[in-house]
């Protein structure tokens, strides 16, 4: 995927205000429903694995930056869906497995689970892989949504109103379909390449099912530049300088793989837009939103973009997580998520910008990009 030529990359920041400071009216969307993995999980994995999962002294101090305690999120603070909810004036989404009744999901629900794949685990088992991760795939999360929908409406006739006034965030999902076999070394890279078309197909199929139920607005994120993730940098470290991007220090072939996934996803989303012209489908370019940090970390205040704040053997927790690109070696810090969310809400890493999907009279305050720049 070609790098963005947006003017922001040619400008220097003189002041970085708190990102997402402009709040959008809650009337834009009545609810947010989110499907995905640990990039979006706000409590489902911990609820399924046991509430004391984060209590081990071997864990990083998850949640320390924003919540002051573990919050079910696999970072030091908020994740992207948190920033989006706050921008629209909605409370943080209730994790599906933590809810007890329909009222708990009055503002939506989060179905994302750490470790979740897009494809069902039977796909991997059929290939002889040892499946040790969660069974809460995208298909299971879709089943959860179908079970929840009747609790939100007294009758099926009201489903369309719920669907049409809600924002659906489908992803990031699919990354673990590649992470699991690549990082445990159980499958060759050539075989993992063959997983991409069925992963993308399943994502598109799930979106189509939601459209048929009446959903009107989607955010569909692509994969991150996985060649910049510390766990991948360690697993596939090489003495060959040509394996690395000299500008970022990331592993080129892994990023090219992520670009391949994103290319196929964009192509299929474009086809879906043609089939359903009255539905707003926003591709959220997480790849470009994150890679710009690695290309010019100083611009965003990152001093160690390729290093983990904690989680590596014999390491102590860093003093300032906001200056690190990775929290625990696999998941970004809240500071990275903040940059990504701002790029999706206010551009340039979503078309249309998510904030622009709200009617103009529903915008509260200044809807300009919250980064202020001065030309060189």
Short description:
With 376 residues, this protein is α/β, with parallel strands linked by helices.
Word description of this protein:
The chain is of the alpha/beta class. The protein has helices spanning 44-49, 80-87, 121-125, 138-152, 159-164, 175-184, 189-193, 196-212, 230-235, 252-275, 286-295, 334-346; strands at residues 11-16, 31-35, 108-110, 166-170, 217-221, 280-284, 304-308, 324-326, 350-351, 371-375. Helix 2 (80-87) packs across helix 12 and helix 11 (286-295) crosses helix 12 (334-346). The protein is globular, with a radius of gyration of 20 Å. It starts with 10 loop residues before the first strand and ends with a strand. The model is unreliable at 1-22 and 360-376 (pLDDT under 50).
The biggest beta sheet reads: 6 strands, mixed
Average residue pLDDT: 88
Large-scale geometry: globular
* Proportion of residues in β-strands: 5-15%
Instruction: Measure the end-to-end span.
Output: 27 Å
List keywords for this structure.
single chain, 376 residues, 6-stranded mixed sheet, disordered C terminus
Layout of helices and strands:
Blueprint: E1 11-16, E2 31-35, H1 44-49, H2 80-87, E3 108-110, H3 121-125, H4 138-152, H5 159-164, E4 166-170, H6 175-184, H7 189-193, H8 196-212, E5 217-221, H9 230-235, H10 252-275, E6 280-284, H11 286-295, E7 304-308, E8 324-326, H12 334-346, E9 350-351, E10 371-375
Parallel strand pairs: 2-3, 2-4, 4-5, 5-6, 7-8
Antiparallel strand pairs: 1-10, 6-9
